Every structure is written in C-alpha cells, then in structure tokens.
Amino acid sequence: MTEASLLPGIYWQLTCWYRPDEIALRMASLSVLGQFSGILDSLLTYGLCYIHRRKGPASWRWAYIICGLIGIVESVWLFFYFPDFPDSPPSRRQFLTPEEGAFLVARLPPNAARSSDRIFDWPAIRRQLKSPLLWGFSFFALCMNSSLYGLSFWLPTIISSFGLTKGPKSQLLNIPSAVVSIISSLSLSWWLDHDTRTSRPLFMLSGATALIGTFLGMVFCKSSGGLYALILLAQAFAALMTCALLPLRSQSLRESTSAAFITAFQNAWGQIPGLYTAQVFQTKYAPRYAVSYSVSIVFIVGLMSASLFIWYFQYDVEKQTREIARLRREEGKKNIVVGEDIKI
C-alpha cells in the first residue's frame, strides 16, 4: 500500500519537468536503476546466504532489514530537499532561480502540469475515464506485465531451475540479464529521444514481434544454456517494446489536474498480473516453462492489438510531437529559441 504511489508519482513528476520528446531516457533511467538494484540484490543475497547464526534474524530477513533502512533514510532526505515543480516558490527545496524555473515551464507543452494548477479536479477525472486512450494504455500495461513477469518477477526461480549452477551461485546468474536490460534500455531510450522519423507505436510493435519469436524459441529449446541465452535476448526485445510506452503516454495527458490519476490508474492495471502470473509460472513447468511462455505469447498478441488501438487514436498527436522535436533541434542548431502555440 505504501509503495503503490511511488512509481506513478515519479513518472508524473517527470512530465512536469521534461518534454515528451526528451523524456524517454529519463524514464528509462528508472527501469535501469530497477535493474541495477537487481544486481545489488543478487550480490546481497549471495553474501547473506553464508550467514549461519543460531540466534538472531535469518539471512533472508537481513535482506529486508538492510533494504528497508536504506529506504527510510532516503525518504527522509527526499521529503526535505526534493523540489515539486520548476516554477515552485523559492524554498529550501527549490534549487532553481525564478528565471530558470520560468524558462523550464515556458518550454513545456501546454498540457504539462504547473504549480498553479488545481490540486484535484473530479470533472477532469470523469472526462478521462471516458477516454479510449486511457483504456487502451491500461490494457497494454495489463498485457505487457502479464507477458514480461517471466523476465522479471519470476526470473530468479526460472534461472535456478536451469541447473547451470547450484546453491547461492545461482543468484549471480541474474546479473547478466540485468546488464543486458540496462544497456538495451539506455541505448534504445537515447535513440527514441533523438529519432524524429519513426513512430513510437512502431517501436512497440517491433519489440513485441521479436519477443514472440524469442518466446517461441524458449518453448521448443531443450538446452538449459540455450534457454538462458534466449532470456538474455528477450531482455533486449522487451526494452524495445517498453521504452516507448511512457513517453508516448506523456504526449496525451491532456489535463494536468488529472494526469497523476491517469498515470496511477494505468499503473494499477499493470499490477493485476501479480494476482495470477504465479500460477502461470509454476515450478512444475520448469525448466523450459513451455506452457508459461505460450501463455505469455497470447498476452503479447493482446498488447499488439492495444498498440494498434492506441496508434489509431493518437496518430495525429504522436506525429505532431515528432515534428515539433525535429523543428526544435533544427532551429536549436542556429541558436534560435523555438516557441509553440499548439494544443495537444
């Protein structure tokens, strides 16, 4: 319950500081840090596995204690020093001058949230609940996590079942998967922020198509080493599919007073797979998890349908965002400030 608002809150606040055509790399940094934490967790659990004490907490409890204490210290610091909006009033949390804050706000699109906006607006939320884009993105999030939990949440169990190594060392096999995900996410997000020709839904569809091929290989592959290699390859294709999602969504947050609700609503749909994917990835399907990845393919087909649905309703806005980004970069090379008077 306490963690639920963290991720959608971060995603929403990034839209208050960055434009849709430059936000992909910033949003990808969150998932990259999540993958990096997976590396730290693997090293931490590997070391804690060698704790053998007759008294005191078990080794797995120490993992919660250590991570929890880090989170408490960081949250206290954030409460006192983390800023709200670029144009927030001067305070101990505002590190920008009024002129710098005004400049950052001026370069944002009209639909970005401002410090002067209303805090909560029920009519705006009711309007958004009628939006086909809200339901399209929510269904995409549902299908995406349903298909990718096998590459994230259940991955340590899956890798352990391969039998490539035994004991605590199996935790270290999670590290290459995280490294591939980090490199792919940063590279593809940088490309997204600099490419103005390719439609973002096309990125999502390309990644989904490649991921289906990889999952099919995992269904029929009988080699543990081959399965592990396919998992590493799948991480790269998953990054191609997911890196474009949140930047694309930020383009269509029409009313800033309901933007946080929209982000949280979509994220909530993405949590639903946690209710049933444990049944999909039961250990009785190990080590190939052929049944599990066959089910994942069905969900990928569903998210591809959602991508086409989103593309249909957001075609003009997505194309306009790329065109504005192209003009800004061309004129920026001439040291000319580019303004805009376009409703998104």
Radius of gyration: 22 Å
Please give the count of helices.
Answer: 14
Q: Strand portion, in percent?
A: under 5%
The whole-number mean of residue pLDDT values reads 82
CATH architecture: Up-down Bundle
Count up the domains: 1
Could you please say which CATH topology applies here? Growth Hormone, Chain: A
Q: Could you give me the name of the CATH homologous superfamily? A: MFS general substrate transporter like domains
Q: Portion of residues in helices? A: 55-70%
Output the helix-strand order.
HHHHHHHHHHHHHH
Strand count, sense and closure of the main sheet?
none
Count of beta strands:
0
InterPro entries: MFS, MFS_trans_sf
Subcellular location: Membrane
Membrane topology: Multi-pass membrane protein
Pfam family, one: MFS_1
